[in-house]
């Protein structure tokens, strides 16, 4: 039994809640579709569901398909921003990318021209490409450093890229390439655009399971200290800032609805994963591949609603 102080539920009660969420997940299996913009993702078996939580002290509890690896996709935008916030000054970052919700699809291009090549936030594609540029122009081996960062955060040296997914993204790069070249035209991308794209696609193609992802986000539930190895990843202020950005921008143009229903900072990816943070308590990862029209996991979002109701507290009241 885990002796965890992070929730008023006993570890046994919490495990019962996770098991219930797994039993209820198939109710959502009739809705939505798996991502199909690249063949490597379209092949994923849709009716799967996993959930894992990592308590602020590093203990993990999980249920369902929590050990099945999947493509983390846009969730990697958070890992990239962490690396940038560790290495660059706030001025260097926030003069080139904003901190406001976009109200547009994650891969939209319309706002980018109207706003002179400055993306609204780091969690839409344009913003993540910008953050990737900040990293590629400073790091000798950006892909390697990003992978090491994720391995360190999750305390798991086995995490790796799915090269097939990365290649597939490159073969279907048109929209992301359009975003990156438009930003270059505004002088807001400094390194080689093809290198930026390749690095960004590799980051999206990291293959992880719910347990590994929950662990890699645990520092955001623990005032910036990674409970898996005791290292200080972020200051308390940076932790608060990242959680605020996740709450307002983490689920693209469905961020408001997610805040309304779940009330936690979160980040989704088109691989069907959603990570959420209950500050000072736990990080959570849910995964189920069927997506709604915004590109967010349907069963994942339902399960997070069920989890916060079952836990009986959120930062919102
Ligand atoms: N929302 C997502 O997960 C999008 C990531 C995807 N690789 C893309 O760039 O379009």
UniProtKB/TrEMBL annotation:
Alphabetized UniProt keyword annotations: Acetylation, Hydrolase
Record has Iron as a keyword: no
Enzyme superclass (EC): hydrolase
InterPro entries: Beta-lactam/transpept-like (IPR012338), Glutaminase (IPR015868)
One Pfam family per UniProt: Glutaminase
Binding-site residues for substrate, renumbered to this chain: 74, 125, 169, 176, 200, 252, 270
Catalytic activity: L-glutamine + H2O = L-glutamate + NH4(+)
Signal peptide positions on this chain: none
Superkingdom of this protein's organism: Bacteria
Gene Ontology MF terms: glutaminase activity
HAMAP family given in the database record: Glutaminase
Listed PANTHER family: GLUTAMINASE
Record family assignment: Belongs to the glutaminase family.
Name of the protein described by the UniProt record: Glutaminase
Taxonomic placement: Bacteria, Pseudomonadati, Pseudomonadota, Gammaproteobacteria, Oceanospirillales
């Amino acid at each position: 039994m885990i002796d965890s102080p992070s929730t008023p539920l006993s570890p046994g009660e919490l495990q019962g809640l996770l098991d219930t969420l797994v039993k209820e997940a198939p109710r959502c299996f009739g809705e939505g579709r798996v991502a199909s913009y690249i063949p490597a993702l379209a092949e994923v078996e849709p009716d799967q569901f996993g959930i894992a939580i990592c308590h602020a002290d590093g203990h993990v509890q999980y249920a369902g398909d929590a050990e099945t690896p999947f493509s983390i996709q846009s969730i990697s935008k958070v890992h990239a921003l962490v690396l940038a916030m560790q290495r660059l000054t706030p001025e260097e970052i926030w003069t080139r990318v904003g901190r406001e919700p976009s109200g547009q699809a994650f891969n939209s291009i319309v706002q980018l021209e109207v706003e002179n090549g400055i993306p609204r936030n780091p969690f839409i594609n344009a913003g993540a490409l910008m953050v990737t540029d900040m990293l590629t122009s400073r790091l000798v081996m950006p892909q390697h450093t990003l992978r090491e960062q994720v391995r360190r955060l999750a305390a798991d040296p086995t995490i790796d890229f799915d090269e097939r997914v990365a290649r597939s993204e490159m073969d279907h790069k048109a929209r992301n390439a359009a975003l990156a070249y438009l930003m270059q035209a505004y002088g807001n991308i400094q390194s080689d655009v093809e290198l930026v794209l390749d690095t960004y696609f590799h980051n999206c193609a990291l293959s992880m399971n719910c347990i590994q992802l929950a662990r890699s986000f645990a520092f955001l539930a623990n005032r910036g200290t990674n409970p898996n190895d005791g290292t200080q990843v972020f200051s308390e202020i940076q932790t608060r800032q990242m959680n605020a950005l996740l709450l307002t921008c983490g689920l693209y143009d469905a961020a408001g609805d997610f805040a309304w229903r779940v009330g936690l900072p979160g980040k989704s990816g088109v691989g069907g994963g959603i990570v959420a943070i209950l500050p000072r308590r736990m990080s959570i990862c849910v995964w189920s591949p069927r997506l709604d029209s915004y590109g967010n996991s349907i069963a994942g979002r339902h399960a997070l609603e069920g989890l916060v109701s079952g836990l009986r507290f959120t930062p919102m009241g």
